[in-house]
Here is the input.
Amino acid sequence: MIRLGAVGDVVRTLPAVSALRAHYSDAHLTWMVERKAASVVETQPWVDEVMLFPREALSDLVRRGRWLAAAGEAGRWIAALRRGGFDLVLDFHGILKSGLLARLSGAPLRVGYAAPVAREGSWLFTNRRVRLGDTRLSRFERNEALVRFLAVTESAAQAPLCVPEAARERVRASLGAGPAPVVLHPGTSDSTPYKRWDPEQYGALAKVLAGADGVSCIVSFGPGERELARSVVDAADGAARLAPETPSLPDLAALFAWCRLFVGSDSGPLHVASLVGTPVVQILGPTDPVVNAPYPGTPSRAVRVPVPCSPCRRGCAEATCMRGVPTRDVVSAARELLVGGPVRSAGTAGTAAIAV
Here is the structure.
């Protein structure tokens, strides 16, 4: 299986791989992935092997002009790939790089998407191509289509992202006893700041939930996002506190698994939360609400204000579509899920099942 990155796209491949494992119970499943998303794949018990694509090492050598060293590194890695003796490759990524890697694997059967879902000519390197009748599908539906092509009829696991017990224990110790909080996640990737809701609005949300509903909030953050999270805490005037640090993706998944609700923009962490079974409120601006819908097996609400230019793939500095999302609408969505969602505490957190 090839799905190299990013985190949100990698975790949204888990349900399809879960169904694949249920169908091919005796197969040896190898997942090719880049380092940034590898830790979440490595903790999934139904993946037999994780193969790291050395993107950073190769890029560093090329950047320093060490072309021969880069060629040697690539050659050694390709030789290791060929030694895998793969019978079948599924290209969930659908770009030129993943297509080339599928071909270099030497697998006689290479399944991927047809254009236009497959991009950059990646379909030229597969010999079985899945043509989707509707290209505007959620990532979950798109990934499912690839395994259904193989006559896989099994369903994905109920909560297809496994949270390691050790990570759950670390989070339990960090949060302490008491009712499970709501987690607010204001961050997005560095390349998509236009997807972020204003910290002041997150702060206002926390104050309403703490005051009228008696619900405590924590603010989670990824690498380089502590100050952004701190600005939400400051805006909340005591109604929210910083979440414990989560040094790895499994730790982040464990944190979300303890929480009763996740509120945030479209991001990898939001999809992690939905895949461990935590209800999510997704605040949308430029994001396509169909393509990037949360995991359908988990309760969710999407909050957006349609503007003529949304959805779009580029975003803009004005981010009118994000700034226009009213706090009251997010409060209403959160309350709907808090009433109907599971009640958890630091002693009764649910387990997340897995799939790959």
About this structure: The chain has two domains: 7-148, 165-340. Confidence is low (pLDDT under 50) at residues 342-356. The two ends are 10 Å apart (CA to CA). Residues 67-83 form the longest helix (17 residues).
